[in-house]
Amino acid sequence: xxxxxxAKVRVRPETGHLYIDFSLRGVRCRExxxxxxTPANRKAVEALARKIDKAIATGNFDxxxxxxxxxxxxxxxxxxxxxxxxxxxxxxxxxxSEAAQAWYxxxxxxxxxxxxxxxxxxxxxRLLPHFGEQPLYTITRAEILDFRSRTQTSSGRKNKDDLxxxxxxxxxxxxxxxxxxxxxxxxxxxxxxxxxxxxVPKMDIQPFTLxxxxxxxxxxxxxxxxxxxxxxxxxxxxGEINGLEWKHVDFDADVIRVRQSIVNGVLLDTKTEGSxxxxxxxxxxxxxxxxxxxxxxxxxRWVFPAPGGGPLSLVNFTNRVWIPLLRHLDLAPRRPYQTRxxxxxxxxxxxxxxxxxxRVLGHASTEMLFRVYSRYVPNLTRNDGRAFTGLVTGQGxxxxxAVLPPSLAALSRAQLERLVRxxxxxxxxxxx
Length: 432
What we know:
Elements: E1 8-11, E2 17-24, E3 27-36, H1 39-57, H2 63-66, H3 71-81, H4 96-107, H5 113-131, H6 141-152, H7 165-186, H8 210-219, H9 225-234, H10 238-242, E4 249-250, E5 255-258, E6 260-263, E7 266-269, E8 277-280, H11 283-295, H12 314-328, H13 338-349, H14 354-361, H15 367-373, H16 386-393, H17 413-424
Antiparallel strand pairs: 1-2, 2-3, 4-5, 5-8, 6-7
Helix pairs in contact: 4-5, 4-7, 8-9, 9-11, 9-13
InterPro entries: CB, DNA_brk_join_enz, Integrase-like_cat_sf, Integrase_catalytic, Integrase_recombinase_N, Min27-like_integrase_DNA_bind, Phage_int_M, Phage_Integrase
Protein name: Integrase
Keywords: DNA integration, DNA recombination, DNA-binding
């Protein structure tokens, strides 16, 4: 039932007797025993506590059956009888588990495989263990907020103590949609009301400068140089480049056709519809891919295979190649995903149209570009005031190059001009 938490067996200090502490419909309940705190007695009371949990979770808790002499038993029975009919539609209101299964089953045809698998994991690993067999009408707003709090402090991936706000919001979104669907279907009110998502901190990006890119690609092992060159100058996501097959590399059109991604060793559709795109091969990338073609065994489907022949493993690459390489070059440690941020900042700094950059990166719009990268490239917003100064002095904004932020400070004028020529040379633009 709503508002309940797992029953705890506690000991009263003044008597040394055991008691059961639980909550029902948001009301804390304490039922005393005359048993001393001994291992045998504690084991027996803990068994009773587990039975209480199960009965409450399945909606079959009868206070009088568990505690016939408790003064709370009569009040609990009166509260049960005063409950309004659970469904305005006249249909029996199902448990949360049944509602979740119905919602998932009916929406599955419109979801991409990767999204469906993510939702399935959220339901099975997060939502069902907490809400499971509770009747829908017993779930309260207070319990939802309590669930969010517990979820945020639960162990996440990579043994982190807390889940990120973004991850918690994804879990809560699934819960909200299930409850909203059930509310429409059964004519009940959803308890998920006026619950705003957690505040998500701004994305921490640490792109490399063009000089650092050159140092990295020059120092990496030769068999991984084409891989890093391709990452740095296409902006492909990790799953996209690790799951890239030769059939999607079109040397005639000079494009990489992004159609799939590999996640946890499973080949899936791209993240979103916008992620399925054609990424232009600048000459540097074309040269790297032709070099890679000669490095892989004949008949290998993967562009960047692991030594065993399967797709490249991010964990192995990170631990055995990437981290030692950055340490060797005395560069600040960061994830390989920063190669994507590097590609974005270099494209924007070179003067490319933000809409074209968004399409190349697989974004649905330029919103993320302006939100995430504008502080690295002042020309996106002209927030350095140089354009206005040029206007009022009659010199024009083009008479001097905008000051670059610290992350791109290593780009000299000559380097930036070379980058512009590289990105434009032989690169098919969407405008052409």
